[in-house]
Each structure stands twice: as C-alpha cells, then as structure tokens.
Amino acid sequence: MATAGKIVASSLCHTEMFHLFEGKDKRGFPTVLGHEGAGVVESVGPGVTDFKPGDKVIPVSVAHCGECRFCKSPKTNLCERSWINDHVDLMSYPTTCFTCRGQPILQFTSTGTFSEYIVINQIYVVKIHDDAPLDRVCLLGCGIPTGYGAAVNTAGVTPGSVCAVFGLGAVGLAAVMGCKNAGASRIFAVDINEQKFEKAKLFGATDFLNPKAYDKPISEVLAELTNGGVDFSIECVGNPEVMRAALESCIKGWGVSVLVGYTDVDFSARPIQLISGKTWKGTLLGGYKIKDSLPKLVNDYMTGKIMVDEFITHKMDLEQINDAINLMKTGQCIRCILNISK
Known about the structure:
- By secondary structure, the chain is an alpha/beta fold.
- It has twelve helices and 16 strands.
- The chain has helices at 14-21, 69-72, 84-87, 134-137, 143-155, 170-181, 197-203, 218-226, 240-248, 272-275, 290-302, 321-329, and strands at 2-11, 31-32, 36-44, 56-59, 98-100, 103-107, 117-121, 125-127, 162-166, 186-190, 207-209, 232-235, 256-259, 279-282, 312-317, 335-339.
- It starts with a strand and ends with a strand.
- The mean pLDDT is 94.
- One of its GO terms (cellular component) is cytosol.
C-alpha cells in the first residue's frame, strides 16, 4: 500500500554522512540519499485510505504500521515491518522503486528524499497541518524529534535536574531544547567546537565545556562541577568513547545516560557503572511513534512551543549538495535546507 509524493524540501543529516564516509557495507550503494524531507502526496495506491492527493506529508525512516505487537505497545516506537529490523547494514530495503538505466537504486532508509518524486509505503508517511511550511518542518522528520525526544521521552528529564548534552549538532541542540522545556535547572553543553556554544545558549544551555581544554576526563570535570555527576546525560555524537564518557558523567544511584548518536562499532563500560545504579539507554527517533506524535510536533512548532527555524544555517539547491556535505564535514553547518523541487 504505497503513496507517491513530490518532495519539496529536504535536509542533510549526519546519517547520510555516516553512510557515505563511515559505513562499511558497500551493498548499501548505489542509493538515493535523503531522509529528512517533506512534500505533497501526488497519488495513492490500492488500499491506501489515510492519504489523498494534495496532502502535506513528512516521510519518515521509522515505520508505524499500527498493527504489530511493537506498534500496539506503549513501551516502544519500533515496528516489526521496519527495514531497520533486517537491513540496517544496507540502510535500506534491498528492493526498491528506483532504477537508473535498468539498474536498481536503493531508497535510503525507505525514504530517499533527495529525489523530486518518491514512492513509499504508507507506514512511513505522516500527514501534517495544511499550513505547515514544508521547507522548515522537514527537519521534524529526524534530527529534532530524535534529540528532543531523547530528553523528554527516553531520559525523562525532570524539573530542577542537571543535564549534560554531548555533541552540539542539530540532534544535540534539540536535546538541549528538550532539557530546557522539561525544566532542567542546569544544562551543560559539551563539544570540542566552541563556535557552537553560542547556538547552544540560544536553545537553553547554561554551561559550556570543551573536553580538549582540560587535562582530565570530561566525566571528572562534570563530577567536580555537579557534586558527583549529572542527573541525565545525552550522547549525540555516535562515538564509543563519548558514549562511555557520557555514562561516566552521570551521578551514581539514579543517573540516566541516553545513546542517540549512531555507529556500527562495539562500545563498552565497566560493570560498576551500572551496578552503582546508573541506567544506560538508547533511543530511536526520540521514542516517538510517528503517526501519533509528528503531527503534534508540527503543531507545537507552529504555535511556538518548540524551535525549528533556529536550526537552519544554510539554504541551497539540490545541485549544491556537495557544498552542503563539505559544510557539515567541517562543522560549519547545523542544518542545510535543500530545495528539491523547483
């Protein structure tokens, strides 16, 4: 049960960067990249009843069939029909609607929003408000809900708590925003690029740390500044060493650390970190069930409850995609909006 849509705008996310430069499975190519987009339904296939031509939609790389045991459980936003279950190495289903000169081209994370037109299963599509600006709410397809939900859903940040966010890309900044909106009293923004601190302040960070400025582990620095460690830490880098540092930065007894950044290599920690009462968790798209939550996030943006425009640092045409990639590689870009359809 598929829908065909015209993509109006899409953003470049770190997941594309990982697949291009760090992913080890070359079977994931050739592929049409892009998974943080928004567009308009052009047509619907047999059996599709939730959408009609003209609907504004966000295609999302996390499925929500609404029928499997995971979709019916309030404990998770996983779905048994998702490509993630069996094809995470490819970052795509092995079957695809895209071809070029008779050869199949994969559809990245089931979306492929760097194409003007896509065909996508309806379990990956969310209808949004008719007045939503597509060149902005496309960011709600991945990065912002991932970081924001990591704070408000997965970590469960509480009023008056002390938090630390590791990595100040779009996902990390969204996590900072989530900590602030959840009522945290102190939010440490941790990054080796100090140029990002001013932007983090805009989203609610109160303290700023560059791990390279200290001759001791950043976990020890945070422990000294917080009388033992933070209540909540959120790792938004995708680096095993940072994951461990985030866990070790939490206070024993009740500290919670959430892994958000993706990588496909092993990570580790000493058992005493968990035996002492800390919790180590992971999150996918911030724990949001897409059909239920993304329309609400769009409305929250439109009513001023969450920030979206502030993440956008660049706007380009799709033909400038290589320039956008270079900006992200060098840390000069938070989010670049690409105009997909003229």
